[in-house]
Amino acid sequence: MTLRSSEAVRRRLDRLIFLGPATGLLVLFFIAPVIVDIGIAFSDMGRNLRVSEFTTENVERMLTGDRRLSGVLTTTFLYVLFTLGIFNVTYGLVLALVTTSLPERTGAFFRAVWLLPRMSPSVVYALLWSWVVAPTDYGLLNQTFAGLGLPLIDLKSDAPMLLIVLANGFIGASFGMIIFTSAIRSIPEHLFHAARVDGAGGLSIVRFVTLPAIRWQLSFVTLYQALSLLVSFEYIWLITDGGPFFDTTVWALYVYQRAFESGQYAYGAALSLALVIIGIFFALLLWRFFDMRALLQKPRIEVS
Amino acid sequence: MTAIVIAQPAEAPAYDWPKLAAKARSRRRTQNLLLYGLMVLGALPVLVPYLWLFTVAFSGRTGTSTLVLWRTLAVLLPALFGWSLLRLTMAPGRRLHMLEIGLAVATIALLAVLTGPYLHLDNWRFLWNRDIADTLKGASGVGGTFPSVWTAFGNSLFLACAQMVIVISVATLAGYYLSRFDFRGRPSYLKGLLVLHAFPAMTLIIPIFLMMYWIGLLDTLTGVILIIVALELPFAIFVMKGFFDAVPWDIEMSAMTDGASRRQAFRMVVLPQVKVGMLAIAIFAFLRGWEEYVFVRTLLTSKSNWTMSLYLFWMRDDLMGTDYAMVSAMGVFYVLPSVVLYTFMQKYLTQMTIGGIKG
Amino acid sequence: MRKANMLTAALLVGATAIGAALFDMSAASAEEVTVKLWARADRSGPLRAGNIVAAVEPLNAALKAAGSDKVVKVEVFESPATGFDADALDLLKAFSIGQGPDLFVMAHEWVGEFAKSGYAMQMDDFIKANPWAFADVIPVLWNATKFDGKVYAIPQDSEIRMFFYNKDMLRKIGKDEAFIEGLPGMVEKGEFTMADLSALTKEVISGGAATMGLVHRPNAGPDYLMTLASFGVNVFDEASGKLLLPKAEMLKALEWYASNAKDGVVPQNNTAMSWDEIQGAFKTEKAFLYHQGVWATKEWMLGDAKGATWPTDEAGYFKKIGWIHAPAAEKGGEPKNLSHPIVYIVNPKSANANLAAMIVAYATLPYYNVQHAAGSAHTAITYGEANMPAYKDAWYLAAAMPMLARSIFIPNHPAFGRYNGILYKALQGVETLRLTPDEAIDFLEDELTNELGDDVMVVDKLN
Fold first, then answer.
1. Sign of dihedral through CA atoms C359, C364, C370, C372?
2. B39: nearest CA in chain A?
3. pLDDT recorded at residue B181
4. Where residue B1 falls among pLDDT bands split at 50, 70, 90?
5. Distance (Å, rounded) from C-alpha B155 to C-alpha B161?
6. Chain C partners of A49 at a C-beta cutoff of 8 Å?
7. Residue B161 vs residues A26, B119, B166, B345: alpha-carbon distances, Å
8. Which helix (H) or strand (E) is B314 found in, with range?
9. Interval B186-238: pLDDT, tens
10. Alpha helix ranges (H) inside A64-214
11. Mean pLDDT of the A264-285 span
12. What is the dihedral of CA B297, B301, B303, B304, to 10 degrees?
């Protein structure tokens, strides 16, 4: 036994101990289902879960025969754009900036308020929204409007996109808020002092000190949340169920409805593969945009 | 008026430090007041629905009346406004403290008078009445097959905790390895994780359902736990890797030059530095397990395995209309543990963030 | 007394039948057999499962009388599905991995799917062999249990879907009693049409007696089919056994919905409301018409619920509320309503299939079924049941029985659930003014042919 080979054994053992559990779990319960899913996408599995032949029919249908898809794609794009642009990034940043400049306990209180939607189980959260926006005078929103002498409104029918952006945005804002808050806190205090001595006001401090310092976090949140929004549909499903008509049917929900509400598991699987491809494309695009190579930077030193 | 006088620029006197300080303080106060107002306005749409849920849980009778909510708001909002005014205008001290106590007592007394007559605990009967379906719509006929809320509560707690523990330990190990060790395929591993995060996991329900059946984990909480763990891992590993990246090399190096092995250094020196990250993951993982609905709904069939999400969904979703007041109470009961967890963890979080990043 | 007699008779006849059926299974020692029942947790009909549990008692007595040592126990699984369609999909999943129950409760239109997949036992011989239980079943109900001409299920209940109208509102806009009370008769004779109903509703609203016109369910369901049928839409072709989309007739029906939405006869956001709001709107007398089933009477119309108190006696109720079919589309046409029976289905692969079927036979007896019917306001499945005191006491059921003559059923086609889901989307599109009726027909044709393929036939016009 040379020193070198025992060294190699230990390295392998290290990898097994540290990376083994994660790899095992991911392969067994994530990657394997993905492979099975690809199989289903190219099969004729229907509601009785039986496969009698393998076919490319589902892919053909998706590419040529499904007239709903272009609308669904537009809806998805608008939904991700608005939710991300208004809440997950912008409002998350505003919350982080404001709560860090308020006295510590006050700031913490407002952060806690915005975390409340994220703390709430989805079933409760969706229940609250449907009660709030109920179209008759049962709804909290309409009671408020009536109290102010305004006419009743029905977000679910008249502005469904606004409704799902709000409902998802109220949850989404807190992710950016958390990440940005800790990033802002880690900016060395003397930078702010220096800026203030130079006579910078609040807004220019934000622009010239804070924003550059949290650039990495900004791109991280944008990328991660774009992908999360792209694939998530639970709240839309529980609040509007994609309606009225197809107005709020985003791609991920469309996949679910095709697979589980009409039992076309194979077509659903094909649609979900397309969503993955869109997701990867999206990821690569943002990657270029934001120079995500930093994330993959090699460890600077390795002690063995 | 006096404020304006103070704010006027003095004609180049020798530096009047106390005056300047006062000016800065008042500017800061106005700015804070503005920001504070902005935050309050933004927070209202988030908070009021929850307050509604809360008031209905303690006052509603089969429906979702808003009477108690408006009365509560009518008392609370002016009280909060008054309190912030006190805080912002008065110097801290005994007098402020006395005024605060006075305000609190007055608020509570007013609330008791205005809402007291409507309050009752009847909506909480699901906590002690085992067969709640019976009390809603006559006998359920099959008697005793509807699970008690405590069964659902226990299941959800087990699901959330077990899942949380596994995610933290596995993600910490993997995050450390990915942060500190270079190995062939590391970039692909990281990119792969990013892609897995992008994968629409919900659409995997059918293959997951089939696989759970093949390995005999269908209709077990264990099966659901393992699935959620796998779906949470990519995100958790990323976060942990980020935290390890932020831990300076020097402390690890010095531990090892002192004779510690790699694993010892990890355990005794590095791990304490990333507690914040682990807590952050813990909160996210717990919540994910606590609120899980879609997979629970698909993979669990036995009533004895019901979780809170299924219990509540069944209670709220009834063709014939339901007792919304009791559903509100259940909602409050269901939200409470995650809110409590957050309140405790948040204290830790802020402390640790500062400590963790300084290096 | 009556109950006891009927039970004894049933026990005696049943005992012989069971003796024959279980001859091969009789064992020397006492043996507990568990029959697994799958039923959707549904508070509108808890006795669908409850009657099966109760019917075990006479079965065990009969088994004992026949000298068998078997003791049957029923284990109920109440699924948390949100509707019968979701429940059917869940159950199909359970079956496909070999975890199907011995016996299950299902909406009748799913019979086809389960029969085709081999999850439903063919019942013709069993029914013939046990006339003591099945000879009295109202014949029209068997139509709802057939697939390919054979019976695969046993009816569990029936009901009538209809339009409820508010008579007080008609009084308020100055209609005379003769018109108000004569409306059901005019509808029955085909003199009062769908267009007349819309016009009358508009009159009620413009007269200030109501703020909403017709309100209907906020989701997919069988109700709409009766309205479509009035316009001549037939969704099932008996000859070929395929589902049908008759474009011309469907267009007329959709145009009715579209003009209703435009004229404010139906709220454009009807499908955005909750059940609670819809029912509340009718109960608090904001809406003139309510479209649903007879059971709603007992569920929330009588007495104190949904924000208002209504009379609980027959005379008082019918002074306020009247019932009509979906009127004919044109004068002289036929009005329609819909009955949507729930059925019991036995798993043919179950080791206890015969026992499960016997339990269903006992549960079909009037003594048991009337408790469900009267308790949950569903119409009877046997003539004997309809004559029982408990049933007659439920005056709303007696009042609904004659309407059964105008009932249509949903076709027992395996793909009907999907057809219905697509149909609902089209209706929602039309009602929210997102689709014109023509676009909706286009949408229907595209979606139906894409999703159902050979299961559906698109024709320009029937006849």
1. positive
2. A110
3. 85
4. very low
5. 10
6. 92-93, 96-97
7. 20, 34, 9, 15
8. helix B308-316
9. 888 888 887 787 676 776 887 888 888 888 888 889 999 999 999 999 888 98
10. 69-82, 92-101, 104-119, 122-132, 140-147, 155-158, 160-185, 189-197, 202-205, 211-213
11. 80
12. -100
Task: Give the per-residue pLDDT at C443.
Answer: 95
Mark yes or no for CB contact C49/B317 under 8 Å: no
Q: Does A47 touch chain C (CB under 8 A)?
A: yes
Distance (Å, rounded) from C-alpha B91 to C-alpha C141? Answer: 82
Nearest CB to A47; choose among C92, C268, C271: C92
Are the beta carbons of B314 and C82 closer than 8 angstroms? Answer: no
Name, in order, each residue with C-beta under 8 angstroms of C442's C-beta and a sequence gap of 6 or more. none
Under the banding of pLDDT at 50, 70 and 90, the label for residue A11 is: confident
pLDDT of residue B8: 46
Pairwise CA distance, residues C147 & C71, whole Å: 33
Residue C396, token pair as written in the block: 């709303």
Q: What is the rounded CA–CA span in Å between residue B3 and residue B1? A: 5
**pLDDT tens string A226-251:** 888 888 888 999 899 887 999 999 99
CB spacing of A276 vs B287 below 8 angstroms: no
Higher pLDDT, A295 or B36: B36
**Cβ contacts of B246 within 8 Å, gap of 6 or more:** B356, B357, B359
The whole-number pLDDT of residue C315 equals 95
Bridge partners, C151 (sequence order): C146
CB contact under 8 A, A48 and C276: no
C-alpha count within 13 angstroms, C-beta hemisphere, residue C432: 25
> Which residues does chain A have within 8 Å of residue B280's beta carbon, measured at their own beta carbons?
178
Tokens of C22: 């279980």
Q: What is the DSSP string of C253-315?
A: HHHHHHHHHHTTSS-TTGGGS-HHHHHHHHHTT-EEEEEEETHHIIIIISEEETTEEE--SHH
Task: Judge if ipTM > 0.95.
Answer: no
Q: How does the average pLDDT of chain B come out, rounded? A: 80
Q: Which pLDDT tens digit goes with each residue over B3-17? A: 344 444 445 556 788
Cα end-to-end span (Å), chain C? 55
C433 contact A CB<8A:
no
Pair type for strands C236-237 and C242-246: antiparallel
In this structure, are residues C67 and C30 in contact, taking their beta carbons and an 8 Å threshold? no
By C-alpha distance, which of C126, C425, B27 is closest to A243? C425
First to last CA, chain B: 49
Q: Which of A102, A89, A116 is nearest to A180 (CA)?
A: A89
Q: Is the pLDDT of residue A75 over 60?
A: yes
Tokens coding C191: 């003199």
For chain A, the first-to-last Cα distance in angstroms comes to 18
Contact: A156, C95; criterion CB under 8 Å: no
Report which secondary-structure segment, H or E, holds C346: strand C342-346
| C-alpha pair distances (Å), C289 with each of B333, C74, C429 | 39, 42, 21
In the numeric block, which tokens belong to residue C261? 């939405």
Burial class for A281, CB neighbours closer than 10 Å (0-12, 13-18, 19+): exposed
Q: Running DSSP on this structure, what letter comes out for residue C330?
A: S
Window from A80-89, B67-76, C12-21 with minimum mean pLDDT: C12-21
What whole-number distance in Å separates Cα of residue C367 and Cα of residue C449? 46
Checking B336-343 for CB contacts under 8 A at 24+ apart, the result is: B337/B157, B337/B290, B338/A119, B338/A120, B338/A121, B338/B286, B338/B287, B338/B290, B338/B291, B339/A116, B339/A119, B341/B283, B341/B286, B342/A112, B342/A115, B342/A119, B342/B283, B343/A112
**How much is the pTM?**
0.83
Question: Apex CA C377: angle with CA C372 and CA C379, to 5°?
Answer: 80
Interface of B with A in 225-254 (CB under 8 A): 226-227, 229-231, 233-234, 237, 249, 252-253
> How far is the C-alpha of C255 from the C-alpha of C329, rounded, in Å?
12
